[in-house]
Design a protein that fits this description.
InterPro entries: TPR-like_helical_dom_sf, TPR_rpt. The chain has 207 residues and is mostly helical. It is built from ten helices and two strands. Strands 1-2 form a two-stranded antiparallel sheet.
Length: 207
């Protein structure tokens, strides 16, 4: 059984919500791009900035990344230094093929707010895509202390992305451990099926 890591990497790429808030805004799981998109502007105070941000999210939903970047930059101009907006700019840079710039931005954001879990997920996934698995492992381990009390969608995404890192490192034991943690936290079929596929792989094909 061969697993394509680029397909199975899960990332809360453009989730605009405060770390301690979680409500029923529409959440979209895009299998073809491996994104989880939460259509919310919670955490952005300025109404106009929030409006621009939501425009950007809808462009992301339709995979129009250049237009999304323009809207995120408009939101940033209205409400500068908002980590939710800045992290989405970093992520859309990666979507546009600017992985080096994206990773640099994410590292800088982590240095400003080391508690924001999405930054670790997104940076770790970016590094996985570049096959920089040892660097990704360091990032995930660094952010581990902030994941314990987060909502299930973040915990499952974190653990499953980490399991993908261990697949890249051919560390079958840790791959299975974190895939099971991801399965235990998952509350939807998209993440559950991903977790189960990683667990099966760790038992049968991992070398």
């Amino acid at each position: 059984m061969k697993i394509n890591l680029l397909i199975l990497m899960i990332v809360l790429s453009f989730q605009a919500c405060k770390e301690n808030s979680y409500n029923s805004e529409e959440i979209i799981y895009k299998k073809n791009t491996s994104d989880i998109i939460k259509l919310s502007s919670d955490g952005i105070e300025n109404k106009k900035a929030a409006e621009k941000y939501l425009y950007g999210l809808n462009y992301i939903k339709n995979e129009k990344y250049s237009q999304a970047k323009k809207e995120f930059l408009k939101a940033d101009k209205i409400e500068p230094d908002n980590i939710l907006i800045l992290s989405s700019i970093a992520n859309v840079e990666n979507k546009l093929g600017n992985s080096t710039k994206s990773n640099r931005m994410l590292y800088e954001l982590i240095s400003k707010d080391s508690t924001y879990v999405n930054l670790y997920i997104n940076l770790g996934v970016n590094l996985n895509k570049l096959k920089k698995y040892q660097e990704a492992e360091k990032i995930f381990l660094r952010g581990m202390k902030y994941i314990e009390n987060k909502e299930p969608i973040k915990k499952s995404s974190y653990f499953l992305s980490m399991a993908a890192t261990y697949k890249g490192l051919s560390d079958c034991e840790n791959m299975q451990i974190y895939a099971k943690k991801g399965l235990n936290s998952a509350q939807n079929d998209f993440l559950k099926n991903f977790a189960k596929s990683l667990i099966r792989y760790s038992k049968t094909d991992c070398k």
